[in-house]
Design goal:
single chain; about 260 residues; alpha+beta; 7 helices; about 20% strand; kinase activity
Length: about 260
């Protein structure tokens, strides 16, 4: 087995052989001529000046094994933690956006129960949101079928404000004047034809004084004639108390005025 210490001796031997071959000639005998021709010597080694030095440097250089750099575990952990945080943030943002979109669409499709006073006020503040369920009492004597129109009309009141309702269809069997009713549809602005209908009843004049009326797509009178949503019933009870208080205050004012004149 060749060791590193034997390499210089081999190199020196190869150099000496190369030197001897440089001065050695080959004899070539021609068969027809009795003469000997000198032929160019055959070099054993290429005469590159740097080959020996490179080989010597290669043989004597110390071989140092290369080591792979140690991985930075802390940096890798921080990188993975950052990726997880970004993943959680993006997931949460997508879920929150989806919930907001669903809630907005659900809110747009909701139909709220309101009273005539609420309907008039909401239309005045934002005419674009005009789909509601209107509840209240059918004003007595307000049901009418104009000959010039295919729509029935009646007035719903919450005891404070009245609103005209127009409906194209047959009314339910439980529909009665003076009883509760719920209608679903849209608040719309009055047209001159509807406002100035010559066949309109005088009891509807108060409702025609507003800027809007209610175009019903469905008339609901469920269970019995006393059916009414809780929010509408509470509004009617509240309005009854307000009307009673106003009547009592007016009566007291009349008594006070009579006492002064007396």
């Amino acid at each position: 087995m060749m060791t590193r210490s034997s390499l210089p001796r081999l190199l020196r031997a190869a150099a000496a052989a190369h030197h001897r071959s440089a001065s050695t000639t080959l004899l070539h005998h021609h068969p027809h001529h009795h003469s000997i021709t000198l032929i160019q010597p055959i070099p054993l080694l290429h005469s590159h000046p740097t080959s020996l030095s490179h080989l010597h440097l290669f043989s004597t250089s110390r071989r140092v094994p290369t080591r792979a750099p140690k991985p930075d575990i802390a940096a890798r952990a921080r990188q993975m933690q950052t990726r997880r945080l970004w993943t959680y943030a993006l997931t949460f943002s997508c879920i929150a956006g989806f919930i907001v979109i669903v809630l907005n669409q659900f809110q747009d499709q909701l139909v709220f129960y309101i009273t005539p006073e609420d309907a008039i006020n909401k239309y005045a503040s934002d005419p674009s949101k005009n789909k509601f369920r209107l509840g209240g009492l059918v004003l007595e004597g307000s049901v009418n079928q104009p000959a010039s129109s295919s729509e029935m009309e009646f007035v719903i009141t919450d005891l404070r404000k009245d609103i005209l309702v127009r409906y194209n269809g047959s009314l339910p069997d439980l529909f009665r004047e003076g009883h509760s009713v719920v209608v679903e549809g849209f608040v719309k602005p009055f047209t001159e034809e509807i406002r100035d209908c010559k066949e309109a009843k005088s009891v509807t004049m108060k409702a025609r004084a507003w800027d809007c009326y209610f175009s019903a797509t469905e008339v609901l009178a469920k269970h019995d004639e006393k059916y009414m949503p809780a929010e509408v019933a509470n509004a009617l009870e509240r309005n009854k108390k307000i009307i009673a208080e106003e009547a009592k205050a007016a009566e007291e004012e009349q008594k006070a005025a009579g006492a002064v004149t007396g």
